[in-house]
């Protein structure tokens, strides 16, 4: 019981990070019908900017307390959002209206560009950072087994829920959210009704990148080791989460992320650690056989 | 086609000519050291060059080998297996009879095939992968240990130091990590301790909490990790975060400052196997002083390279020939050879018979022998 609870905590905090990245995939897919394969690398950029901020703060002797973490988060979100905007402006907007595969290939190219850019500018070796929030609380004790919930895990769960709540309000209650939903349903019609679709799409990329920056900062705080390649694996897992939850659906992305995190963790907990990815992907395949649009995806309506 | 064949014939002819010249009984004996003189691992190549140069100078000052002076060639493989093969061909073409090298196992192994064909003796001061001598022909030797010897030392140490404690063995499925873990397991079991958990993890990930909770659930107190410092550091850090009091034990891959950067203070007390510092041995005192007089710190593989040349010179003197096959046979059958590292004997494969692995411990951000 205690063991299962500990693994549940592990799985949720891992799944939350996947979920945050998955939201970026699903948003971009929803609005322009394209898989942004460079999104995992945007997450990696976010983690690097948070690390650079932390190093600057520690050079100034100010690296401690919640204020430092908040500052890391905000600076990383701001700069990564700028990367997201630039990416859309330079690599995707010129290809809008071109054949479907063109932006997909650009996305893969952009992913390689971002990876190599960080590899060259920051070096290929792993970048470590010491724990900013060491320690945690004892949740439960069962015989010799102590269930531990670390402060970082609490932070991840808290920040993720807060960010997702704000984001949901943004999409459902604001004029920008309304414009985004309009573009998603019919971009041409939205443009005819006076919505600046280019600006709406740009802002979608900016928001997606900011969420990836949150994920990157949380990842850095949680694991303390990053390198230029982390975006690939995390991106693949998050993309899987988005597909599992139903690509295009925001709650689906979070649900998918949590499920992938939990499946991986519980498979490692009770079966062979080596086959955890096989387990996660097998469940993805089974889900897609019976629910081709994912868990919360909508049926695609053929437009005539 | 004709021109190419002509070229090959011409270059082969040159090779023979060079070979004949070197085999003459009056000129200097050509030997070489080869390793990464440029590139990412150039620091290690420099160590090999310094060791070899000093050894050649010392041997020549003492009258050379078989009454002839030694001439040293330097080969640069940049730790690239393909470049290693072409360097090996070049050196063989110049009539080199003996090579102290290479550094990376990935270079030493393919180069050894060339040397075996061309009749060149090879003693590596640094390549620890078991395949180097396991697959090697008559010509492969090394003055360093093997990864599997490390496992034997680790397994015996764990059984002795932590009797009755619950031990887990983890590895990353790499040739290095799994080899190390399997040898440790063998030695541990032979000493009467059975591990509580034997599992593999996926390298390159960051979240090892699931496996850490598993260790915690099994009540493991000591974990041996066959793998590199990043994953080992993360496993330890996450174990401490989950409130475990875990002692981590690893191999020579943990001997890098990056390990401490990842673990921070949680790395305190981590143990790992590594060669004992040869600079502190009594047999090395005089040579170390000679290096220091030139303002060179004989760190890392300098003395291992120096020893490789000493061994070859002694064996050549014993059989009164530089013929690589006869020297190789003597190296295995006779000995021990007196070197800066202490007396060294070789087994039938060309490995040192007494591995010199000892335990190091991480304390306060630096590591020291225990």
From TrEMBL, chain A:
<feature type="transmembrane region" description="Helical">
    <location>
        <begin position="279"/>
        <end position="297"/>
    </location>
</feature>
<feature type="transmembrane region" description="Helical">
    <location>
        <begin position="67"/>
        <end position="86"/>
    </location>
</feature>
<dbReference type="Pfam" id="PF02653">
    <property type="entry name" value="BPD_transp_2"/>
</dbReference>
<keyword id="KW-1003">Cell membrane</keyword>
<dbReference type="InterPro" id="IPR001851">
    <property type="entry name" value="ABC_transp_permease"/>
</dbReference>
<dbReference type="GO" id="GO:0015808">
    <property type="term" value="P:L-alanine transport"/>
</dbReference>
<feature type="transmembrane region" description="Helical">
    <location>
        <begin position="98"/>
        <end position="118"/>
    </location>
</feature>
<keyword id="KW-0997">Cell inner membrane</keyword>
<dbReference type="GO" id="GO:1903806">
    <property type="term" value="P:L-isoleucine import across plasma membrane"/>
</dbReference>
<feature type="transmembrane region" description="Helical">
    <location>
        <begin position="201"/>
        <end position="222"/>
    </location>
</feature>
<dbReference type="GO" id="GO:0015188">
    <property type="term" value="F:L-isoleucine transmembrane transporter activity"/>
</dbReference>
<feature type="transmembrane region" description="Helical">
    <location>
        <begin position="12"/>
        <end position="35"/>
    </location>
</feature>
<feature type="transmembrane region" description="Helical">
    <location>
        <begin position="254"/>
        <end position="273"/>
    </location>
</feature>
<keyword id="KW-1133">Transmembrane helix</keyword>
<comment type="similarity">
    <text>Belongs to the binding-protein-dependent transport system permease family. LivHM subfamily.</text>
</comment>
<keyword id="KW-0472">Membrane</keyword>
<keyword id="KW-0812">Transmembrane</keyword>
<dbReference type="InterPro" id="IPR052157">
    <property type="entry name" value="BCAA_transport_permease"/>
</dbReference>
<dbReference type="GO" id="GO:0005886">
    <property type="term" value="C:plasma membrane"/>
</dbReference>
<keyword id="KW-0029">Amino-acid transport</keyword>
<dbReference type="GO" id="GO:0015192">
    <property type="term" value="F:L-phenylalanine transmembrane transporter activity"/>
</dbReference>
<keyword id="KW-0813">Transport</keyword>
Automatic annotation (TrEMBL), chain B:
<protein>
    <submittedName>
        <fullName>Branched-chain amino acid ABC transporter substrate-binding protein</fullName>
    </submittedName>
</protein>
<dbReference type="InterPro" id="IPR000709">
    <property type="entry name" value="Leu_Ile_Val-bd"/>
</dbReference>
<dbReference type="InterPro" id="IPR006311">
    <property type="entry name" value="TAT_signal"/>
</dbReference>
<dbReference type="InterPro" id="IPR028082">
    <property type="entry name" value="Peripla_BP_I"/>
</dbReference>
<dbReference type="Pfam" id="PF13458">
    <property type="entry name" value="Peripla_BP_6"/>
</dbReference>
<keyword id="KW-0732">Signal</keyword>
<comment type="similarity">
    <text>Belongs to the leucine-binding protein family.</text>
</comment>
<feature type="domain" description="Leucine-binding protein">
    <location>
        <begin position="28"/>
        <end position="363"/>
    </location>
</feature>
<keyword id="KW-0813">Transport</keyword>
<dbReference type="GO" id="GO:0006865">
    <property type="term" value="P:amino acid transport"/>
</dbReference>
<dbReference type="InterPro" id="IPR028081">
    <property type="entry name" value="Leu-bd"/>
</dbReference>
<keyword id="KW-0029">Amino-acid transport</keyword>
